[in-house]
Amino acid sequence: MTTSTPGSRIPAVLVLEDGRTFRGRAYGAVGATFGEAVFSTGMTGYQETLTDPSYHRQVVVMTAPHVGNTGVNDEDPESARIWVSGYVVRDPARIPSNWRSRRSLDDELRKQGVVGISGVDTRALTRHLRERGAMRVGIFSGNALPDEGTMLAEVRQAPEMAGADLSAEVATKETYVVPAIGAKKFTVAAIDLGIKGMTPHRMAERGIEVHVLPATATAEDVYAVNPDGVFFSNGPGDPATADHPVAVMREVLDRGTPLFGICFGNQILGRALGFGTYKLKYGHRGINQPVQDRTTGKVEITAHNHGFAVDAPLDGPAETPYGRVEVSHVCLNDDVVEGLRLLDRPAFSVQYHPEAAAGPHDAAYLFDRFVSLMEGQRA
Ligand SMILES: NC(=O)CC[C@H](N)C(=O)O
């Protein structure tokens, strides 16, 4: 494989499916890659973004102009590998500097074979995506690039995100256990649809022993661990394809076991209750999204990474086969449903990332709510 450096002179071009192109230089691995072009507004936390399995098949555009300043450390990854299919930055750090840094981001991308592009006007690209919506994209780098017509044809042949069923591609194949930190108080079965490492850790910190089960786990597998609560994780792809986890969740709701879902898990709860999901024009990604908890009225700044959302009524509780449900959280930027709460069963979910990796810790109380539900069930 050819190598690039942040000062690389190897040309690269980004081609959007609507024909708009941006020229820059190779960053990370040199070659070609495809995915859905999305932008993240996080100023920090690029390692957590890159290793979040929910970004599988997405090409992430960073709106922060400087990326890579603190290099790559061994502590911050959220999974064993980088999942983004491509990476777009304006101005990569030439020399990373941080006491934890082990290598440069450019080296890490190259080592993991992730094709990126630098020197792109990421403000113009983000505005384009905001106006036209998330769309397919290709990044091509090398000294001999194909002509634009050929590149565009390849981008238009790449799979779309709508209709993509991706959880099984990123989730664990085998069950593993994250032990409780300190005295064990509860056992939780966590369905891995693309879970981030910090999520079981946040539960373990609260005395929960977490059994992380593959995406294909059945209700029988879930109840085999004798859980006090069941958790449904975040994950990539279109929630409309998640029929299997929806069926498992309905069994959990039927049994009345305390249930908590985040992100993809929120969309699955929406579907289990009979609501639809839809694709947002360009989604929410970053660590600075304002959400209101409608039960307390408090506003929290939260970490998001979602391109789909639940279509549930904002006004008042709705009747569902599992009793009344209310929209518990809304995004203050655009009124998108950010959380669901059942009023007659111990189940709730949020569309964002309370595990805060990276991101503010405002939403940490949600893990405590899950603990309270499990305590309530025992009382
Ligand atoms: N982070 C997630 O769980 C994302 C859920 C889903 N893939 C979406 O894009 O909306």
From TrEMBL:
Region ranges (CPSase): 1-186
Superkingdom, taxonomy of origin: Bacteria
Keyword Cell membrane tagged: no
Amino-acid positions noted as binding L-glutamine in the UniProt annotation, renumbered to this chain: S54, G235, G237, F264, Q267, N305, G307, F308
Annotated catalytic residues: C263, H353, E355
The family this protein is said to belong to: Belongs to the CarA family.
HAMAP family listed in its UniProt record: CPSase_S_chain
UniProt subunit comment: Composed of two chains; the small (or glutamine) chain promotes the hydrolysis of glutamine to ammonia, which is used by the large (or ammonia) chain to synthesize carbamoyl phosphate. Tetramer of heterodimers (alpha,beta)4.
PANTHER family xrefs: CARBAMOYL-PHOSPHATE SYNTHASE SMALL CHAIN, MULTIFUNCTIONAL TRYPTOPHAN BIOSYNTHESIS PROTEIN-RELATED
This protein's name: Carbamoyl phosphate synthase small chain
Organism expressing this protein natively: Streptomyces luteireticuli
Organismal lineage: Bacteria, Bacillati, Actinomycetota, Actinomycetes, Kitasatosporales
